[in-house]
Amino acid sequence: MDIQVIANEEEFNRLLDEKNDFYLLKHSLTCPVSTFVKRQYDQFSEKTDIPCYMLHVQEARPLSNQIAEKFDVRHESPQAMLFHDKEVVWHDSHGAVTVEALEESTNRLT
């Protein structure tokens, strides 16, 4: 499944309105740990039916900060979040974001 990059509040709000479930990765374009996590996220996106999205922290800082504030999830980078019914039901960051952790997080949807 292709990972679409979102960059602004309008795109994010559209996701909240149109998708019951989706993943979002806050990805740093300059961090080696973020590069590792993105590879894990890419692999996971190929295995799941849940839509996967990403924002580049350096290019979408206002959106990244807004998400942290609105959903009361302290900003980290890299950071993966699972949204369900317009709420964050799972999130993790740095090396804890693995294919296995992402797969296990889908159990929160049942």
| Number of contiguous helices | 4
H and E string: EHEHEHEEH
Q: From the coordinates shown, what is the CATH architecture?
A: 3-Layer(aba) Sandwich
Find the count of extended strands (DSSP E, 2+ residues). 5
Range of helix content: 40-55%
> What class do helices, strands and sheet pairing give?
alpha/beta
CATH fold name: Glutaredoxin
Assembly state here? Answer: single chain
Task: Provide the domain count.
Answer: 1
Which spans of ≥5 residues are poorly predicted at pLDDT below 50? none
Largest sheet: 5 strands, mixed
At the fourth level of CATH, the homologous superfamily is Glutaredoxin
Strand content: 15-25%
Mean pLDDT: 95
InterPro entries: BrxC (IPR022551), Thioredoxin-like_sf (IPR036249)
Pfam family, one: BrxC
Protein name: Bacillithiol system protein YtxJ
Describe the protein.
The chain is an alpha/beta fold and 110 residues long. It has a single domain, classed as Glutaredoxin. The chain is 40% helix and 25% strand. 31% of the residues are buried. The mean pLDDT is 95.
Properties at a glance:
alpha/beta, 110 residues, 5 strands, Glutaredoxin
Topology (elements, then pairings):
Elements (H helix, E strand, L loop, with lengths): L3 E2 L3 H10 L2 E7 L4 H16 L4 E5 L4 H11 L7 E6 L2 E7 L5 H7 L5
Parallel strand pairs: 1-3, 2-3
Antiparallel strand pairs: 2-4, 4-5
Helix pairs in contact: 2-4
Pfam family, one: BrxC
Protein name: Bacillithiol system protein YtxJ
Organism: Thalassobacillus cyri
